[in-house]
DNA sequence: TACAATT
């Protein structure tokens, strides 16, 4: 593997070759964080001073499964490496998606930026740039921002935050299909104190003439996640659960549904009558899973997962998306979730049937999602 | 307990 890299990287069209080689590496959602600069084997001179500013690089957005050896091989193809480090989670050893490379020759560092920055590896486009000197003052300077107006661009967000300090990276998360903003983003400042000031100044504030205030807080660091939560997350990501005791219930729902239709239950579609004028504020929406009716499901147990929502709503018709809202730290369900259904009639039927339904010890409350809680 | 979002 290492030799393959060394050989192929001498040739033009490196991107294509690399993608073939790395194609076997498993794709993984979630980008690498723009990590804080970390000590990278500093070599202290006799005067005790070190200047790595022209040789030490930070590499962001590496594919999740790239190994230390592959990392070293890729960047070692440019020139002699003084040291390099793929940053990994302390507990699990998983790559955090970024690393550092310190070249012997500043010219090679420059060459690495010109050659490898923007290189596409699997689903990622890697970023290669000079690393800032390691310092406590630049740690924990990453902010998570939510409630942004959907129309706000990354540039506009930067303009809003730039009054508090130097921005190192920023990002607005977008719907993968439509490309529309999800109203959530990240801002990494150069200094932690700048991030603190931005929280003081902007958290709970309305940008420009925005209708709603934004939330600004320190971003959670994936490496701070507990090992248990991480394992739970990995398990939930890959496991496909099958219904146990729930199965007979879904069969009953399906039967109810068929009976209702067979006996001509009134199927009122406001769309056909008044063009949705009576439905302002309810859950018709576009989204990653396509347009549909978003349903709010309340009183789920902390252990609830997506499969229960599929099981409950699937029998009523086309379900394009389900989501259990979890606490980011504990991975426990926060008590509610969302279901998107394509057709109004089927969504209405599901709501009418499932609202008040007892699931285990809990009575579900099911309704169309409202855009704002204070609205009726 | 009541309407998300974590690169």
Class by alpha and beta content = alpha+beta
Number of helical elements: 11
CATH topology of the largest domain: Alpha-Beta Plaits
Spatial shape:
elongated
The topology string of helices and strands comes to HHEHEEHEEEEHEEHEHHHEEHEEHEEE
Number of domains: 3
Uncertain regions spanning at least 5 consecutive residues = 1-46, 233-278
Strand content is: 15-25%
Integer average pLDDT = 77
- For this structure, the quaternary state is single chain
InterPro entries: ELAD_HU_SF (IPR006548), HuC_RRM3 (IPR034915), Hud_Sxl_RNA (IPR002343), Nucleotide-bd_a/b_plait_sf (IPR012677), RBD_domain_sf (IPR035979), RRM_dom (IPR000504), RRM_euk-type (IPR003954)
Protein name: ELAV-like protein
Signal peptide: 1-16
GO molecular function: mRNA 3'-UTR AU-rich region binding
């Amino acid at each position: 593997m290492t030799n393959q890299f060394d050989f192929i990287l001498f040739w033009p069209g490196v991107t294509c070759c690399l993608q073939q080689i790395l194609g076997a590496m498993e794709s993984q959602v979630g980008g690498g964080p723009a990590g804080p600069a970390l000590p990278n084997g500093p070599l202290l001179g006799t005067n005790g001073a070190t200047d790595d500013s022209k040789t030490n690089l930070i590499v962001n957005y590496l594919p999740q499964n790239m190994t230390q050896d592959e990392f070293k091989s890729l960047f070692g193809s440019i020139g002699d490496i003084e040291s390099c480090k793929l940053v990994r989670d302390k507990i699990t050893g998983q790559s955090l998606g970024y690393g550092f490379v310190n070249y012997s020759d500043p010219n090679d560092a420059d060459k690495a930026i010109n050659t490898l920055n923007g290189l596409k590896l699997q689903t990622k486009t890697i970023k290669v740039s000079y690393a800032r000197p390691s310092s406590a003052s630049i740690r924990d300077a990453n902010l998570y921002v939510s409630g942004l107006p959907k129309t706000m661009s990354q540039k506009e967000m930067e303009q809003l935050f730039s009054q508090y300090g130097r921005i190192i990276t920023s990002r607005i998360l977008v719907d993968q299909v439509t490309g529309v903003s999800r109203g959530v983003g990240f801002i990494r400042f150069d200094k932690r104190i700048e991030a603190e000031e931005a929280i003081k100044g902007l958290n709970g504030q309305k940008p420009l003439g925005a209708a709603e205030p934004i939330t600004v807080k320190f971003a959670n660091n994936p490496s701070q996640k507990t090992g248990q939560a991480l394992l739970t997350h990995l398990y939930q990501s890959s496991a496909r659960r099958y219904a146990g005791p729930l199965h007979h219930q879904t069969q009953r729902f399906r039967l109810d549904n068929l009976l209702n239709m067979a006996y001509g239950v009134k199927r009122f579609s406001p769309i056909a009558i008044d063009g949705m004028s009576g439905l302002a504020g309810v859950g018709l929406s576009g989204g990653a899973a396509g347009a549909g009716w978003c349903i709010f499901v309340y009183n789920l147990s902390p252990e609830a997962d997506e499969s229960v929502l599929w099981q409950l709503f699937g029998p009523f018709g086309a379900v394009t998306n389900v989501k259990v809202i979890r606490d980011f730290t504990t991975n426990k369900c926060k008590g509610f979730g969302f279901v998107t259904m394509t057709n109004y009639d089927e969504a209405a039927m599901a709501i009418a049937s499932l609202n008040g339904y007892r699931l285990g010890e809990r009575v579900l409350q099911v309704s169309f999602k409202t855009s704002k809680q204070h609205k009726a």
